[in-house]
């Protein structure tokens, strides 16, 4: 009996130390409808985890990330909801509405159900918590920034900050009007605002599947900037678009353009050289 008592005390101590290390856990809801009502009344974001039973990285989030205290603490700022994209009606509807194509996908929604941020895929706990903090902070700043941009149409830097937020949130309909505003402020690209806006716009169009529009933005970005790494980034994006369509010759041209840019970072040159070597190897195999 004493042995069992000692074992019980040791087990209790282990459980208490586990609880201190991992926290009490995230209090997940399984009703998006109820969470959105709560979000509207409390002026908070919903953190919606859309997952499937077969998804390996979804399980890794559950086992390695969500229990950690840094993530539990960050999640207290939001209303956490978990929905299975295949086995629940609400989960299937959410996956369709938000055009979820990969799992896990974690969306941050305002009270109207509009996406204001997202985490696509698995991230280690510190990164995940930092992203939650960042999205919540931007959401709190968003009304003031939107109001400022409306009343200061010539502040291109503020418009660019707002564009960053919209692109991260996947708000494609808001992207082009902001790029147009930045274009009016920096028509020649001499302020380095337009090129960055075009890079952001191109990345948003890639996510939306509009490859031709993305390519147009990247081509213009490469022309409008004289910052070596920004120019290289535009050419790298174009190379990846061409390679994805098996257009290896124009992809090679873009990568050689990166290698020819003076003042470009070693990391950018290395990435271009590595991709170029892979394309050349693929071309040899086809001959």
Automatic annotation (TrEMBL):
<dbReference type="Pfam" id="PF13098">
    <property type="entry name" value="Thioredoxin_2"/>
</dbReference>
<keyword id="KW-0732">Signal</keyword>
<protein>
    <submittedName>
        <fullName>Thioredoxin-like</fullName>
    </submittedName>
</protein>
<dbReference type="InterPro" id="IPR011990">
    <property type="entry name" value="TPR-like_helical_dom_sf"/>
</dbReference>
<dbReference type="InterPro" id="IPR013766">
    <property type="entry name" value="Thioredoxin_domain"/>
</dbReference>
<feature type="domain" description="Thioredoxin">
    <location>
        <begin position="10"/>
        <end position="137"/>
    </location>
</feature>
<dbReference type="InterPro" id="IPR036249">
    <property type="entry name" value="Thioredoxin-like_sf"/>
</dbReference>
<dbReference type="GO" id="GO:0006950">
    <property type="term" value="P:response to stress"/>
</dbReference>
<dbReference type="InterPro" id="IPR051099">
    <property type="entry name" value="AGR/TXD"/>
</dbReference>
<dbReference type="InterPro" id="IPR012336">
    <property type="entry name" value="Thioredoxin-like_fold"/>
</dbReference>
């Amino acid at each position: 009996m004493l042995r069992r008592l000692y074992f019980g005390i040791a087990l209790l101590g282990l459980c208490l130390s586990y609880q201190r290390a991992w926290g009490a856990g995230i209090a997940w809801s399984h009703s998006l409808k109820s969470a959105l009502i709560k979000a509207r009344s409390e002026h908070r974001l919903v953190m919606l985890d859309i997952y499937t039973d077969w998804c390996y990285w979804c399980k890794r989030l559950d086992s390695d990330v969500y229990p950690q205290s840094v993530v539990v603490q960050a999640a207290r700022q939001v209303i956490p909801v978990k929905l299975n994209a295949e086995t629940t009606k609400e989960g299937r509807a959410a996956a369709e509405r938000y055009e979820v194509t990969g799992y896990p996908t974690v969306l941050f929604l305002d009270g109207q159900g509009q996406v204001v941020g997202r985490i696509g895929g698995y991230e280690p706990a510190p990164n995940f918590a930092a992203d939650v903090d960042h999205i919540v902070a931007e959401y709190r700043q968003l009304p003031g920034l939107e109001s400022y941009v409306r009343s200061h149409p010539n502040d291109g830097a503020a418009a660019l900050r707002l564009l960053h937020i919209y692109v991260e949130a996947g708000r494609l309909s808001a992207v082009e009007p902001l790029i147009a505003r930045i274009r009016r402020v920096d028509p020649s690209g001499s302020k380095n605002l337009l090129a960055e806006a075009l890079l952001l716009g191109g990345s948003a169009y890639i996510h939306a599947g509009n490859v031709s529009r993305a390519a147009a933005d990247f081509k213009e970005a490469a022309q409008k900037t004289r910052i070596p790494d920004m120019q290289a980034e535009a050419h790298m994006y174009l190379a990846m678009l061409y390679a994805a369509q098996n257009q290896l010759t124009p992809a090679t041209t873009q990568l050689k353009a990166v290698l020819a840019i003076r003042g470009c970072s070693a990391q950018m040159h290395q990435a271009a050289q590595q991709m170029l070597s892979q394309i050349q190897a693929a071309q040899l195999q086809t001959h």
